[in-house]
Amino acid sequence: MLLGVPAVSIAQSVSTRLADLDQRILRLMAPVADAKPRASDSVGRPESMIPTLNSGGNTVPMVKVKSTESIGQFGSGTYCFKDPTGLLVDARWLMVVDSGNRRIVRLSHRLDQWSDYRPIQDGVVAWAMPHGIAPSGRYWVLTDVQSHELVVVNDSGELVQRVGEWGIQGGKFDTPVAVVRHPNRKWIVVDQGNRRVQIFSDSWQFDSEIGLAHPVAGPLKRPVDVAVSVSGLIWVADRDRLRGYSETGQWLQDIAGPFQSISAVAIDASGRFFVSDVDANRVWILAPSGQVLGSVEVSRPTDIAIWGHWVFVIDSARSQICRIQLEF
């Protein structure tokens, strides 16, 4: 007996608490069920944003995750993906490059409507291994990392044009992984195998290239993606940093950040950077100045697309598309 409490009572109380703790631990260790092919609430894993300090010592407003939703599973059927690599969002649709299935998937913003197609030429699929995607009016431009070219299709999925071939000269490619349209009617292509970014005219005439040796910045290491800010600056995701260039390809600055291995970058209308860090399993959010505003945990994230406060990102570990609503 201790302070008037029988020892047996203490033992029973401790035993009960330990049993309850064991049950909680078991529930935490239980395997997560396979993702449903249709959208479901809170499938993603949002992480609270970490406030940082600006140069004046004031706290930067915290970015909050309001909701998160995911869709998809590995496979070839409806609401299934096999190595999704590219995203594009407009006022109506979210386009997904489902590379392993050699198709484009079209989803509603709510992720509850689905259609897909493959452009056919002479009885065969028009691309070998599509990867990146960009809009051009009624057309879409896709990079093909196996045939080392760009493929232009219309909104009905019909082949319109092919651009480039394998090579090292300007206008040729070695594993083009990303493409974006510049506001000044230019095309910008990440030519990863040649460690450069190529700039083309609106009619696909070669203009110039970015990434050659620079006396201060040095050459590109392994460019993986490109985004254009509202002011027309070109930002190249290069392994563990973002590299900023003028429209003419002049190097301006680097943003190092906390990145381990960048897989994609997107820029919203306010100039904020959204950076997929595939090895860190998170999407970083940076202010236009490069300050880290926070992050969201996603399993091996790859491409990103932004629409308002909605962030769409590929969860490559689970073959899913995540929709995350943020509040700034």
User: Structural class given helices, strands, pairing?
Assistant: mainly beta
Describe the strand arrangement of the main beta sheet, using strand numbers: 1-2-27-26-25
Known CATH architecture of the largest domain? 6 Propeller
What is the residue-mean pLDDT, rounded to a whole number? 84
Quick one: overall form? globular
CATH topology of the largest domain: Neuraminidase
Q: In CATH, what is the class of the largest domain?
A: Mainly Beta
How many individual domains?
2
Tell me the span between the first and last alpha carbons: 58 Å
Within CATH, the superfamily of the largest domain carries the name TolB, C-terminal domain
Characterize the main sheet. 5 strands, antiparallel
Overall helicity: under 10%
Order of helices and strands: HEEEEEEEEEEEEEEEEEEEEEEEEEEE
Q: Taking Cα atoms only, what radius of gyration do you get, to the nearest Å?
A: 23 Å
Percent of sequence in beta strands: 35-45%
What is the count of DSSP helices, taking H or I runs of 4+ residues?
Answer: 1
Question: Total strand count, please?
Answer: 27
Segments where pLDDT lies below 50 for 5+ residues?
A: 1-36, 38-59
